[in-house]
Design a protein that fits this description.
Shape: globular
Helix content: 10-25%
Number of strands: 31
Distance between the termini: 67 Å
Oligomer: single chain
Mean pLDDT: 81
Largest sheet: 7 strands, mixed
Radius of gyration: 31 Å
Length: about 800
């Protein structure tokens, strides 16, 4: 108490503050925000109201002097003894729990750059959730921006879970709330449903963290007791024994991942084997691979691409190879090829066993296991991030081609994204996922800050005329358990549905669904390319047929200096279009009531967000500029990197601000292995293919122009399903959504479809075969990349 006495504060002021700080007297003086702090003894937010506010600096009618001298600067930072506790005066926002997502956006915080995000650094780099305000910043900077940081409460507050904002509860798990339009959706497997007979507020959410009220010993024994009870007493003993055997193969150890106190996490992992004991081993591998305990056990959790680490640290660090190796060596194919009887296959030339994989395969697969991160903690389970499957962060993901074990590429067999048919989101078997009353996507990537911006808007389906509305609303009203909707047939478009290239989220009577586009891939090299540009001054190449960028239009002007900033005429926030659609949006035929005047396709760097909400942050947009793709060949091993050469004219003022996106500039080190015909490739030793290519700036490789050559593989009916699978690598979307195909015949279990406007067995022909009980479709096409006078590489892989 003696140490809490501040002699610089006059007696009247000290007594007044000591009186008002006492919790019992707070109701008399405290204001509207958290007037009663019964659950938080750490902070007192004091708001003086009524007659007491008027008497702060006036004379007390009874004593003839002021009640409290608020002009006394010594109160700032001073200590006051009250209610057997010592309080120190702090800034009013000290200890606030605020959502700082807005300031992590690319164009919000002044210090944000492509290489650094100061606000995220507190969590990602310093591993703390406490934001320390820099002492070199003036306080007006905080005062002017605080409106963007949603206030949730004070540190140590105890809140009801359903009283939190919807976008917060959405992160921790779906919550049915009283206000607004609500719908129950599925959460994680094994999650206990809320009891409808209980009060609404049955979950507590402590802002500082969840209290641990259990002893460490009982925690460690808990999962063992549960497992013994089920394994020994359960009537399905065969299933339990198979699950035990599988758990001894795909092992996670509590000692190795430092989670001895977890019960639900380990039991959830073990349940993978119980569930799939009589099923498919591939399903087991998939669930194990996404399980965060395995991510920690074999260290691929938070593994990052070399490109990402170079951008962050200026160093080349290869992705973690542990899981890439063990999933083959311990979990699946082993180290050597085997005959059906289990004996080793021997190389007739060397007499040695034939290895199933090489170190090149490990390095390639390690790049496939990048970007895996744990989900955020949910409040209604023990430790949610180790129960929920990991998610893939596209920012940290390696995006470049990866070789497979069969001398092809991962992604072979999938259709090309630029082959998506028109209005594919209205076709038979198109998939929609029920989100609930919050539009934040679950399967699609979207900046978290978008959902906080009031100008963000979704496509609202017409209640009276949209057939898609009826399909989705019928599902909502049916209350059928589940979240996925598959359309049974093609449906007609209505209004804006007819002019968009794809959908993201749609609103149906206050409920949101997200469209799940069919899986597809992009080729690393392509013709038909144009430049796309980013608001922060970057440019690169993209296939004009891909739905990949926003439109950008500027008013027609004879003088470059008189052109205004570009505008995106979108139908929903973040809408992506093809080059053709983007150009149409800028033409006089585009019907918009939002602007007047004639517009043209723009190559500007800056896009206005008018109409509101179309483009946020640094979005890619189409440009009328051309773009060229080049292969950079590493002379030592023939690995290549993709180089983009977008047209940038330094004589034009607007182009001065542009440079090539670092992933694809001529100095990038994003090499990946490819298969060269006859193993010949241009390199400095052969003068870069007899000077068909140019030597790189460092003298270690060659820059080569490329030509894409596409030819049909079969000119008549294939002889077998195996011949189709062995020779075709580029997949096709199902013929029932491709109206340009017509069925020809079924020949030896092969379904053959021809292009209505083509000739039989051209590159438009599609073959359908059944694999593992499901139909797979392949295009009759071989796509090759030719460089340096017919030195060739073949690529059928996604970038």
């Amino acid at each position: 108490k003696k140490q809490c006495f501040d002699s610089n504060i006059d007696v009247r002021t000290r007594n007044f503050l000591a009186h008002i700080l006492n919790q019992d007297n707070c109701n008399m003086y405290c204001g509207k925000r958290d007037a009663e702090r019964k659950n938080n003894d750490k902070y007192r937010d004091i708001f003086i109201q009524g007659k007491y506010a008027m008497l702060l600096q006036n004379e007390n009618p009874d004593y003839g002097e002021y009640y409290c001298n608020v002009t006394n600067t010594h109160v700032m930072g001073a200590t006051i003894w009250s209610g057997q506790k010592c309080f120190r005066n702090t800034h009013p926002n000290e200890g606030d729990i605020r959502d700082m997502t807005y300031w992590t956006g690319a164009d919000t915080h002044p210090g944000n750059t492509p290489d650094r995000n100061p606000i995220k650094e507190f969590h990602d780099l310093h591993k703390t959730s406490i934001l320390s305000y820099p002492n070199h910043h003036t306080m007006d900077r905080w005062a002017n921006n605080i409106k963007w940081f949603n206030y949730l409460g004070k540190e140590d507050d105890l809140l009801w879970f359903h009283d939190l904002p919807t976008y917060i509860t959405n992160i921790y798990g779906k919550s049915v709330r009283e206000r607004g339009k609500g719908v129950v959706v599925c959460a994680s497997q094994n999650e206990v449903a809320k009891n409808p007979l209980m009060p609404n507020s049955i979950f507590e959410w402590k802002l500082r963290g969840r209290p641990n009220y259990k002893s460490e010993i009982s925690i460690q024994n808990q999962k063992k007791s549960v497992w013994r009870m089920i394994a020994l007493k359960s009537p399905d003993q065969l299933r339990q024994r198979i699950a035990w055997a599988l758990s001894q193969i795909l092992v996670v150890s509590e000692q190795n991942i430092n989670h001895r106190g977890l019960t639900e996490g380990f039991l959830n992992y073990y349940d993978i084997f119980v569930k799939h004991a009589f099923g498919n081993y591939r399903d087991i591998l998939k669930e194990v691979s996404y399980n965060p305990l395995m991510g920690k056990m074999l260290s691929f959790l938070d593994s990052k691409s070399s490109l990402y680490t170079r951008q962050q640290t200026s160093r080349t660090i290869f992705p973690d190879e542990n899981f890439a190796r063990e999933i083959m060596q311990l979990f699946s194919i082993g180290t050597v090829l085997l005959h059906i009887d289990g004996t080793q296959k021997i190389d007739a030339t060397t007499g040695s066993p034939i290895h199933t994989y090489t170190n090149h395969n490990i390095m390639s697969f390690a790049r496939a296991w990048t970007g895996f991160r744990m989900q955020l903690q949910r409040a209604n389970i023990e430790k949610g991030e180790v129960v929920d499957p990991m998610f893939i962060d596209p920012i940290k993901r390696d995006i470049f081609p990866k070789i497979s074990l069969d001398m092809n590429f991962i992604g072979d067999g999938l259709p090309l994204c630029n082959d998506l048919p028109r209005r594919h989101f209205l076709k038979k078997k198109s998939q929609y996922r029920l989100l609930g009353s919050v539009s934040a996507p679950e399967m699609l990537h979207e900046e978290a800050s978008w959902r906080l911006k009031p100008e963000t808007f979704r496509l609202v389906l017409d209640k009276s005329y949209s057939k898609l509305y009826k399909v989705l609303n019928d599902f909502t009203e049916s209350k059928v358990p589940g979240t996925n909707v598959f359309k049974k047939k093609d449906i007609e478009c209505y209004s804006d549905e007819c002019i968009v290239n794809t959908l993201k989220q749609v609103e149906v009577n206050g409920i949101f669904y997200e469209y799940i586009r069919p899986s597809c891939v992009h080729l690393s090299f392509f013709e038909n390319s144009k430049s796309i540009r980013k608001r922060n001054g970057y440019a690169m190449c993209e296939n004009k047929s891909n739905i990949i960028a926003a439109s950008a239009c500027t008013k027609v002007s004879r003088k470059e200096s008189q052109k205004q900033g570009a505008i995106d005429f979108c139908k929903y926030s973040g809408e992506l279009v093809t080059y053709k659609t983007g150009k149409k949006r800028c033409s006089s035929k585009w019907n918009t009531n939002l602007v007047t005047g004639e517009y043209e396709f723009s190559d500007w760097s800056d896009i206005d967000t008018y109409p509101n909400g179309c483009v946020h942050d640094y979005y890619w947009h189409w440009s009328p500029k051309d773009c060229t793709l080049v292969a950079k060949v590493f002379g030592e091993n023939g690995n290549i990197a993709v180089v983009h050469q977008p047209d940038i004219d330094s004589k034009i003022d607007n182009d001065i601000n542009f440079s090539v996106w670092p992933e694809f500039d001529d100095e990038n080190l994003n090499y990946f292995p490819v298969y060269w015909q006859k193993n010949k490739y241009p390199n400095p030793g052969n003068k870069c293919g007899k000077k068909a290519c140019t030597i790189t700036y460092d003298g270690l490789g060659c820059l080569c122009k490329v030509v894409i050559v596409e030819t049909p593989v079969f000119e008549e009916n294939p002889r077998s399903v195996n011949e189709v699978l062995s020779n075709l690598n580029i997949g096709s979307f199902p013929p029932y959504i491709l109206k340009h195909l017509s069925f020809d015949q079924k020949f030896k279990d092969i379904y053959i479809y021809h292009n209505k406007k083509g000739i039989p067995f051209d590159t438009g022909t599609v073959f359908g075969v059944k694999m593992h009980g499901k139909m797979k479709y392949f295009k009759n096409i071989l796509s090759k990349v030719e460089v340096a006078k017919k030195l060739k590489i073949s690529l059928q892989e996604s970038s």
